[in-house]
Amino acid sequence: MRTSSKTGREKRRYRGAICLSILLMFAGTLTACSGQDTDSSGVPTKPNPQLATVTLTCDNVQVVAEVAKTEEEKSRGLMYRKSLEEGKGMLFVFDYDQKASFWMKNTSIPLSLAYLSKDGTVTQIVDLQPYSQEPNVSTFSVRYVLEVPQGWFAKVGIKEGDKFNIPPLDGTGAKK
């Protein structure tokens, strides 16, 4: 009697293992088909598709920025892009104020970034070097980070303390 009970348990365990294996294979297939390619360490291997954009203004200066809101979009950023036009950029949006850290792994475009508080005030501007893996950590907690072609902030006269008008980004503010 005990032997058949053990055999029943073994059968249930075996079926459970098979179901788990099938589930893991299915999840792997979905990940592979998602188009969001990463290497074995999780680092993206392809650029973001064109993301929804928003126009940001600071006094009479405008920048059209792609909006990176998801963790996947933010981790990919401008990696693997070949160019970035003047007056264009990428706005990284965080759910809450935090110290942000950025690097340039797999990014060939020289960039400048501005760390922005939740009201859009520029708290810090940093120039980034292509392919650098050195982390650039914000001095203060920020809600947004704006990346643009290197030198663009200086060229248009934007400096620390200036304020960007950031429209609502609740899904209705960005244009596809």
Gist of the model:
The chain has 176 residues and is an alpha+beta fold. The protein is built from three helices and eight strands.
- Helix percent band: 10-25%
Q: Domains counted in the coordinates: how many? A: 2
Low-confidence parts: 16-35
> What is the distance, rounded to the nearest whole angstrom, between the alpha carbons of the first and last residues?
66 Å
- For this entry, what is the oligomeric state of its chains? single chain
CATH superfamily of the largest domain: Protein of unknown function DUF192
SSE order and pairing:
Elements: H1 2-33, E1 53-58, E2 61-68, H2 71-76, E3 88-98, E4 101-102, E5 111-116, E6 122-128, E7 136-137, E8 142-149, H3 152-156
Parallel strand pairs: 2-3
Antiparallel strand pairs: 1-2, 3-8, 4-7, 5-6, 5-8
Keywords:
Jelly Rolls, alpha+beta, 176 residues, 3 helices, two-stranded antiparallel ribbon
Any overview of this molecule?
This protein is of the alpha+beta class and 176 residues long. It folds into two domains: 1-34; 53-156, Sandwich (Jelly Rolls). It is 24% helix and 28% strand. The protein has a six-stranded mixed beta sheet. A two-stranded antiparallel ribbon has the order 4-7. The longest helix has 32 residues, at 2-33. The model is unreliable at 16-35 (pLDDT under 50).
